[in-house]
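User: Predict the structure for this protein chain, please.
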Amino acid sequence: MDKNKIAVVILHYNDFKMTKEYIDSLKKLEWNNIEHKFIIVDNCSPDNSGKNLFEFYQSDEEVKIILLEKNIGFARGNNIGILYARQQLNYNLIVVSNNDIAIKSEIFPQKLIEEYENSGFAVYGPDIYSLSKKMHQSPMRKDPMNLEQVQKQIEKIDRILPILKILDKLKIYDFLKKIKGILSSDKENQNKEYLTRHEDYVLHGSFFVLSELYLNEYPEGLFDKTFLYMEEDILTFRCKLKNLKTIYDPTLKIIHYDGVSSLKISGNRCKKFIREMTETRKSCVEYMNYMKEELQ
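Assistant: Here is the predicted structure, written as structure tokens:
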């Protein structure tokens, strides 16, 4: 690879305005003749926003729209864009990003290239601040969850799900959540890991970068047996298997308008949480099976 090229893969579902605003903001970054492409993968949006994006950007050379015939989830959906960037365009730095993101540094493209040349990362992640949760989401933890921790997560979900379904039926979830919010302490005071640069930590999945060093080992992209959730732990587990470096960089700031699309899908916050727990449990099972297969 004689030149660093940056692709931004954006998984889209049901929000034309948000994705367009993100593309508009990406175009304002200082690309300075850095070859780049914005690849929007529409996960078969039922509101036809994917088709609207296709029509809107069909003559825009910076933007590629890929329309999927069904919703195939986070990992498989992103893999469509990753493979297009890698195989069709031969790009070596691939940003995997939600559409509900704002990059706070106009010089991000150059910073990313400099970081790759200096550290040789396989996966790179910035400081991600969630506006809705009022917390810094990355890094998530030092090590990916192990078999015992994932099993405990499944058991916890099995305890919580029946309660959530009752709360949803009684329509009192929002009231109880509000009370909990009043009684709980400030989340920002609970975790200061985001202040310091780290290597080989678990990075948040709303915005991260894969380099050719990762894709040379895993040319298919992300682990593709999950639909939603647990992608971060699985990605870090894969990197540790191959001694690949992950970098957390606190100097790059990202704003995450967290949970907008999933809330629209579910209709209310309790149903959103039920959906999250259900999909997380399925992904936990797939992750456990993958760990057992790789570690045997």
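Strands lie at 6-12, 36-42, 63-67, 93-97, 101-103, 123-130, 135-136, 198-199, 207-211, 246-256.
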